[in-house]
Amino acid sequence: MEKPQLEKLCYSTRQLVAEVGSFIKKQVGKVDENSIETKSKNSLVSYVDKTAEQRLVSGLQARLDGAAFLTEEETIVASEGTYQWIIDPLDGTTNFLHELPIFSISIALRFENQIIMGIVYEVNKEECFYAYRGGGAWLNDQKISVSDNTVFEDGLIATGFPYYDFEHMDAYFGVLRNFVERTRGIRRLGSAAVDLAYVACGRFDGYFEYSLNAWDVAAGIILVEEAGGKVSDFYGGNNYLFGKNIVVGTKTTHETMLKTIGQHFVKA
Ligand code: IPD
Ligand code: CA
Ligand code: CA
């Protein structure tokens, strides 16, 4: 796809995402306990996630004929293709269900194994973060870039606490302890997509988490890359889309974080 076509598709996908975001926003406080399902330990879902996903899928099908899908709620059978949409219809479901204000829609487009477009829409503030390959990263029509801070001690770091996979707790809390002692602070917002978007626009200097899925990070990855940041897995490699762990940041913060992570996490 040529750049102008990609830009056009990104624009029209942003309209779709804003529409679905407004549906999600209207459901805040309306989901009763009986319509919440537990998919697995601490992984919740309701009709809101599923309806949002269905709306996104049909809107995207109308925009790009024949593309494959990988979606969290599996309202469409996962398929591989030259073009593939990777969707988390509601990232931060626990926040949403507890009426806490940080949750988002995350949509990425992959072409031949490379992410070429990403949109993260933070529903409450109506902030649309988007990027396409070679086109820079944007927040509601303003170009964004990662923080220019180069002093690790002056940085703010985001993470997600383990909530079902407790196998690497010692390593994780070893890293966390180090960062707690050495930075301005740590935040756990509850939406990986927003964490990544906030690194892209410089609100955070870095972010790390393990036990993630591709739909949590796909859109955020291109946001950070196009905003001038660095992305890797915990071992400095590029297995971060499907490898279940990710560390991102400004170039200097990423390097420092990776060093500490390497002292605690050993590649299997
Ligand atoms: C979760 C959020 C959370 C992260 C979890 C994700 P969900 O996604 O991104 O911040 O810590 O790892 O699973 O379940 O709300 O879509
Ligand atoms: Ca998610
Ligand atoms: Ca989700």
Structure write-up:
There is one protein chain. A hairpin with a 2-residue loop joins strand 5 (104-111) and strand 6 (114-122). By secondary structure, this protein is of the alpha+beta class. It has seven helices and 14 strands. Helix 4 (169-182) packs across helix 7. It folds into two domains: 3-144, Fructose-1,6-Bisphosphatase, subunit A, domain 1 (Fructose-1,6-Bisphosphatase, Chain A, domain 1, 2-Layer Sandwich); 152-264, D-Maltodextrin-Binding Protein, domain 2. D-MYO-inositol-1-phosphate (IPD) binds at residues 43, 88, 91-94, 160, 190-192, 209, 211-212, 216.
Question: What attributes does this structure have?
Answer:
single chain, 268 residues, alpha+beta, seven-stranded mixed β-sheet, binds D-MYO-inositol-1-phosphate, binds calcium ion
